[in-house]
């Protein structure tokens, strides 16, 4: 085992929490039962790392085996970085019939034709998602396994999720994906977040949506003996309408855990009391960001509780309706 492989393993072991390490190694299948039993997982991490290095060297494991362990960990714990959503466009006739074996062959052939030094590993997960790990090199350097790109794609869908991709290699990955999936092009969906499940559910509409209705379900009365039936009825109707509009805008039940939404302003400044900015020809630029541990849940609560006005502004409802959380607002619209 060379020094670079040792560094990859050391860094990976540091990333995996101690309480998860034994489970991950058990799923790895490159250490025997005797090897696993010889490890004391109550020891300090650095001692355990040295023992693992010795076992891996003894078993003749190489970088391709170490990256398999990394994939197991990332697949089960995907919220490790910033994920970006993309959408494939202009599907060819045979796009819906692409199978895993065909996809793997085409993707590897396409990418290795575009760049010589690249390491590609593809694995199918239990939820039918295709996971791709790409370590990039160039004509003069070997693939950098310390900074890989991860790609998640569900076959027969036009959606792709990517993390760890730099602008240098983005055109290469896009071209390889487009050719392997039988689509014409791929565009940025303007949806990103650290929670892969959240952006996947939002972009693929895999959450409980509520559609407009003229006959919403009546709310249960919390006070069986209202002091003024007319006032209570009016309050109940207002509450009912707010809840209906909140659910129509953001969904019902458990919502995708989106952390933020960003609005970039590039509009003409309008304020008669400030002629200096109003008379400027160039647009006024600014950024507004909404952030929360669960932004959609927070927005739904603000609307349903009356903290935010109704009907819901399209600037907020577009998060779910368009599956985006990055918007550029100009004088021509969003």
Automatic annotation (TrEMBL):
Keyword Signal annotated: no
Alphabetical list of InterPro entries matching this protein: CENP-NAC/CAD_complex (IPR052011), Chl4/mis15/CENP-N (IPR007902)
Keywords, alphabetical: Centromere, Chromosome, Nucleus
GO terms for biological process, alphabetical: CENP-A containing chromatin assembly; chromosome segregation
Gene Ontology CC: one annotated term: nucleoplasm
Subcellular localization(s) per the UniProt record: Chromosome, Centromere; Nucleus
Superkingdom, natural source: Eukaryota
Pfam families recorded: CENP-N
Family designation: Belongs to the CENP-N/CHL4 family.
Entry protein name: Centromere protein N
Native organism taxonomy: Eukaryota, Metazoa, Chordata, Craniata, Vertebrata
């Amino acid at each position: 085992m060379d020094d670079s492989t040792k560094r990859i393993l050391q860094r990976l072991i540091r990333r995996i929490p101690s309480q998860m390490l034994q489970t991950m190694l058990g799923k790895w299948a490159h250490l025997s039962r005797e090897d696993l039993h010889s490890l004391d997982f109550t020891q300090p991490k650095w001692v355990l790392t040295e023992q693992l290095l010795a076992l891996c060297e003894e078993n003749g494991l190489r970088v391709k085996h170490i990256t398999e362990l990394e994939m197991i960990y990332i697949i089960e714990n995907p919220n490790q970085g910033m994920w970006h959503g993309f959408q494939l466009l202009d599907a060819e006739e045979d796009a819906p019939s692409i199978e895993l074996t065909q996809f793997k062959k085409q993707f590897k052939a396409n990418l290795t034709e575009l760049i010589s030094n690249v390491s590609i590993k593809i694995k199918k997960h239990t939820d039918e998602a295709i996971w791709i790990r790409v370590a990039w090199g160039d004509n003069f350097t070997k693939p950098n396994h310390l900074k890989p790109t991860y790609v998640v794609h569900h076959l027969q869908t036009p959606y792709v999720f990517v993390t760890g991709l730099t602008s240098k290699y983005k055109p290469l990955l896009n071209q390889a994906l487009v050719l392997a999936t039988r689509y014409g092009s791929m565009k940025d969906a303007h949806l990103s977040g650290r929670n892969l499940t959240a952006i996947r559910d939002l972009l693929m509409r895999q959450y409980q949506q509520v559609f407009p209705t003229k006959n919403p379900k009546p709310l249960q009365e919390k006070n069986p003996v209202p002091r003024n039936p007319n006032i209570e009825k009016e309050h109940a109707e207002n509450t009912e309408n707010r809840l209906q509009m909140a659910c129509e805008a953001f969904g019902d039940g458990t919502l995708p855990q989106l952390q933020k939404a960003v609005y970039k302003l590039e509009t003409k400044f309008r304020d008669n009391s400030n002629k200096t900015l109003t008379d400027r020809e160039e647009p006024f630029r600014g950024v507004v960001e909404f952030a929360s541990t669960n932004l959609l849940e927070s927005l739904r609560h603000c609307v349903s509780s009356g903290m935010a006005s109704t009907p819901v502004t399209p600037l907020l409802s577009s998060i779910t309706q368009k599956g985006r959380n990055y918007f550029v607002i100009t004088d021509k619209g969003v």
